[in-house]
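About this split. The held-out portion is used to measure sequence recovery: a designer receives only the structure tokens and must propose an amino acid at every position. Recovery is the fraction of positions where the proposal matches the reference. Here is one held-out target exactly as it appears in the evaluation file.
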């Protein structure tokens, strides 16, 4: 730790061993995450006498003395990712001629600049990878490591971070920061992070976690896990997911409110791939993924996902397929155009009948539902949640229908069915409305489950009942009461967004007259 940008320094009484010298000026330790943070007039340098941007070491012997350890320090000035890339790429090519860029990560600013960038390069010939860390004008690497994953290369013409942040800011990022003064921003160019579960499904982890670089912790051991080098650390194999695109991922996060805003941006065109789409926009892409699962796939359900279907018919979509040969259902979930889940279906569709070709898109049928009473319902009640499904109609399997559920707390939902081939309402709607009164008390599995930040809960009453719907801990402590009133017979849906609860398993308990139904729900963060 130095006070000035130049001068001579002496460190006495070092234990014998190998050291990687560094010099740092004007910094502080973050109380929140224990990382070393830089501020105005900060400067940093490492011992790198050969100038290859790779850490060099010194050896201190018992009773010996080491002199002329020359370190050049540079100011920590914010830069865009492309500002520093030519020097980093040159260092990577000196390490391995076939080295290619696999990812970039940085704690990013609204203007696209960062005090810190991390570049990940891969060498197929060496079957190794190497990270370069950029602090302003200082570029350094801890050396190659054995972590090797044949990830796809980032395209050569990737957009710079300032362009990407301009796109994010114009599409809600600036508003998020205005509403959340504590907002932190992260940017990552590469494949989205993934995790696996025991069923061998796969999901995008859009709430990215960041950890310290284990190799650099060995070099610079810090008390209380403090470190110079926070890095984006993948938790699983990505090379087995050939259908994923390389993206710029931008995350706005407020620790105070736990709110976040995520963007998946095409690194070449700048298109926001995470924007909601109509259902038919994704049909060909989903079918291609389903064919990789089973040649005899057949599409049997499409459903809107979170947050909800918009009035223009756009949403995040979930596609469910059935394979007669496997006798299994398969689910593919999209965040915009990004497939964020592929695996066994979370819930079984109403039937396994194939949806025929020629169905009308979600925007057309959403407009028909609005004209059939949806717009009036939304004008009557506040905070209406709209959910949509496309499948073969349970009342007449020869018909393919869009069903729109208009849901508001404490009021029976409005359910509108639209023929997906004609855009009109089926003639026997009255029979369908009567079918909404169940013959028994029902508490359906919440969706999604596990969930973050919210989940939909649906229950049904066969007759007018005094209802209590509540959340309990596994120890039996009531955490939150969702409903406590008398309600008429019918089906009810509500959206639960917990505040201030820790991750874990909770109990969803429905008590109605003498009936009690319990389901387990899991909150993840």
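Reference sequence for scoring:
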């Amino acid at each position: 730790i130095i006070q000035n940008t130049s001068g001579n320094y002496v460190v006495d009484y070092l234990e014998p061993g190998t050291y990687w010298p560094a010099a740092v000026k004007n910094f502080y330790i973050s109380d929140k995450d224990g990382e070393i943070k830089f501020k105005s007039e900060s400067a940093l340098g490492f011992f790198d006498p050969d100038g290859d941007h790779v850490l060099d070491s010194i050896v201190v012997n018992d009773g010996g003395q080491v002199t002329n350890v020359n370190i050049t320090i540079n100011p920590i000035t914010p830069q865009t990712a492309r500002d520093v890339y030519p020097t980093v790429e040159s260092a990577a090519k000196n390490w391995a001629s076939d080295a290619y860029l696999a990812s970039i990560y940085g704690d990013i600013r609204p203007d696209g600049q960062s005090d810190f960038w991390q570049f990940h390069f891969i060498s197929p010939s060496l079957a190794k990878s190497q990270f370069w860390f950029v602090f302003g004008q200082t570029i350094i690497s801890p050396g190659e490591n054995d972590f090797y994953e044949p990830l796809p290369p980032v395209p050569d013409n990737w957009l710079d971070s300032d362009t990407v942040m301009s796109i994010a800011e114009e599409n809600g990022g600036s508003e998020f920061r205005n509403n959340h003064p504590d907002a932190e921003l992260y940017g990552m160019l590469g494949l989205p992070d993934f995790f696996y579960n025991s069923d061998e499904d796969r999901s995008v982890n859009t709430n990215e976690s960041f950890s310290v670089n284990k190799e650099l912790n060995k070099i610079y051991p810090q008390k209380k896990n403090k470190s110079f080098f926070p890095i984006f650390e993948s938790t699983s194999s990505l090379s087995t997911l050939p259908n994923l695109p390389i993206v710029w991922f931008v995350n706005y996060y407020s620790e105070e409110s736990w709110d976040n805003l995520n963007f998946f941006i095409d690194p070449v065109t700048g298109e926001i791939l995470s924007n909601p789409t109509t259902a038919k926009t994704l049909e060909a892409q989903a079918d291609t993924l389903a064919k990789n699962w089973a040649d005899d796939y057949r599409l049997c359900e499409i459903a809107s996902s979170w947050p909800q279907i918009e009035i223009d018919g756009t949403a995040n979509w979930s596609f469910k397929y059935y394979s007669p040969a496997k006798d299994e259902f398969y689910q593919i979930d999209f965040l915009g155009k990004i497939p964020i889940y592929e695996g066994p279906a979370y819930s079984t569709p109403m039937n396994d009948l194939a949806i025929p070709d020629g169905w009308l898109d979600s925007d057309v049928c959403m407009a028909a539902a609005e004209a059939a009473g949806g717009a009036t319902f939304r004008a009557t009640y506040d905070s209406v949640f709209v959910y949509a499904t496309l499948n073969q109609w349970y009342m007449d399997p020869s018909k393919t229908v869009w069903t729109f559920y208009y849901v508001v707390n404490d009021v029976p939902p409005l359910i509108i069915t639209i023929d997906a081939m004609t855009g009109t309402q089926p003639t026997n709607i009255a029979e369908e409305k009567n079918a909404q009164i169940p013959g028994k008390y029902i508490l359906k599995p919440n969706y999604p489950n596990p969930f973050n930040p919210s989940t939909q809960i649906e229950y049904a009453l066969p007759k007018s009942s005094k209802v209590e719907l509540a959340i309990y801990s596994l120890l039996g402590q009531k955490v939150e009461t969702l409903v406590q009133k008398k309600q008429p017979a019918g089906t009810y849906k509500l959206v639960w967004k917990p505040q201030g609860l820790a991750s874990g398993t909770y109990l969803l308990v429905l008590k109605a007259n003498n009936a009690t139904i319990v389901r387990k729900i899991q909150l993840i963060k």
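Annotator remark: Residues 280-434 form one domain.
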